[in-house]
Fold this sequence. Notes:
Layout: H1 6-20, H2 29-46, H3 55-73, H4 79-92, H5 100-116, H6 126-143, H7 151-175, E1 199-201, H8 204-208, E2 214-220, E3 232-238, E4 240-241, E5 245-247, H9 250-253, E6 267-278, E7 287-289, E8 294-296, E9 302-304, E10 308-318, H10 329-334, H11 344-356, H12 360-373, E11 377-378, H13 389-397, E12 399-400, H14 402-415, E13 420-427, E14 430-432, E15 437-441, E16 445-453, E17 457-461, H15 464-467, H16 470-473, H17 476-480, H18 501-519, H19 523-534, H20 539-561, H21 565-569, H22 573-589, H23 599-609, H24 614-629, H25 633-641, H26 650-655
Parallel strand pairs: 11-12
Antiparallel strand pairs: 1-5, 2-6, 2-15, 3-13, 4-5, 6-10, 7-10, 8-9, 13-16, 14-15, 16-17
Amino acid sequence: MTRTSAPAVMWLLLAQLAAIAPLAPTIPVWMVLVWGAVAWWYWRIVTAAWSFPSALVKVALVVFSVAGIYLQYRQWLALEPMVATLVLAVILKVLELKQRRDHWLVLLLCYFVVACRFLFEQQINAVPVAVLQLLAILAAQQMLYREKPAVAASVRLSALMLIQALPLMLFLFLVFPRIGPLWSMPLPSAKAQTGMSDELRFGDIAELSQNAALAFRVRFEGGQLPPPSQRYWRGLVLENYDSQRWTVNRMGRLTTPPPPPLQGERQRYVVTLEPGAHEWLYSLPVARVNREDIRYAGAYQWLPKAPLTGRLQYTVDSVLMQPRTEASNRVLQRNLRLPGNDSPRARELALQWARQYPDPADRVAAALRYFSNSPFEYTLKPALLGRNNVDEFLFESRQGFCEHYAGSFVFLMRAAGVPSRLVVGYQGGEVNTTDNYLLVHQSDAHAWAEVWLPARGWQRIDPTSTVAPDRVALGADSLLSTQQGFLGKSPLSLRRFDWARDIRLYLDSVNYAWANWVLNYDSERQSGVLSSLMGGISVKRMLVGLLIFGALPMALVALMMFKPAWRASRREPALRYYHTACRRLARRTGLRREPGETVAAFSRRVGEQAPEWAPWFAALSSAFERCQYRRDSDALSQLRALKRPKKLSEKEIANA
């Protein structure tokens, strides 16, 4: 059995901690404590204070830890519990380390743990962290074969290995085929999902506005951004209402109608959604999404054919001023339904409008006047509402967020006989002037209404703009930044500090470039890059590329590590002068210095076999020894003068 040294064990534990620590926001907190206990136990084993745990103890540790993972997540087939199980295996394996190969196994598993972090964090700031993790693991591997601690040497060699692998890694990134997944990745659990839901209750979007996270970025072709009043990023249409919540009409989503033709001046843009589970897309209607795995689901909604995970990018063509006339009698009837008899006061008010105004457009105007003339307050902290939530909001609390105004407006319009529906998505977006694109955050989440007017089709109505017009004109940040609770779930976000705006936008530009050129490097982009760089793809070109980016760096490193002695001598002038004199002497006399022969011994041999050169070489050897070993500054100039073979006069011999 091959034991490892105590320094190697310490480095293994440090490498293990470096691999696990960045996953702390994803795995349960108690797993970090388990690692600390296991590491302490194994260190006591190494120092001969404790013994290895018995089989019964190890089984108990596994059972309790697995039970803890299940109680934490309440499921197995999700990303977080599966990663937590891998981390748990890496931690508990430490209590079985008896041979060097066991250490190797733990270190190899640490590489998988490092890779798992990229399932949750794909920003560019994760790259330097991963590099440091790899350095720690490589250094731990180096320490396995060192009897004495050599931290600097191990880290230096590990860094050299990473630098050596960098060209080959870049080449493989460029040319390795972009194929689809070989298996289906389980979706993240609800804990990992943020953003819009497919149902809406009063207060949901107000809670979402406390989140500073980025939802998606949008880059417009030509750099011309639409005005803020047109930045309504349509996500889902909610048509069903059960007195407490709005939900999507799932039966309607099963159909696949043809997308409406675009009529008018098109505006093209690219949307890049942040990593997550994507079951619907965001666009400016009327839109056409240019992806084969996306389908049109009616009501100007675009949905993936199957749920997509990770970072998602798609190109959209939109005609912002195109009328939206897609409707049928069944759709219009569905958008008139109201359940039960709740909120009777709101129903009565809507019936008065229906009797007073035969034209549906006038009923819409009457509802907007009601919101404008009443003392409503736009707030992140609205009062809690009961069963008759619409009545309580319209006539009592009059405090609400966008979903309160939009939901109550749709309720009033349906009660007044005007087909209406609720739309959820995002409104606005922050302009990054550094690179001229839009950042849409979770705090930009918004809800608005659509009403059907026979002469004009579906019309977007945003009752929030009548109460808080700055919400649409200036954005959510400018209106809500002074309210308590805004970005309350992101206390460390740079968006909370005005002075950090330029820094934040610059860092986001870097992350956006990283997302475009690295994370979204798909097969289509790969084909274009390879055609421009290599003129096409062939086996011969691939082999030449591997030779250049793989073998050449290794050859350069080998030359650096095994360079000849004369290269080293160039750094020492005295040694260089002495070797030059020896080579010139060999050309004249045939005498060569033997390997391992000292300077004095070679000088004596020259005196015996070539006496005519002995005075010169003896003076040279004396000057060299004084320069090399006594650090005599005058000897170097004498050595430079003596490097050419010649016969010396008695005066020169005496001076030397």
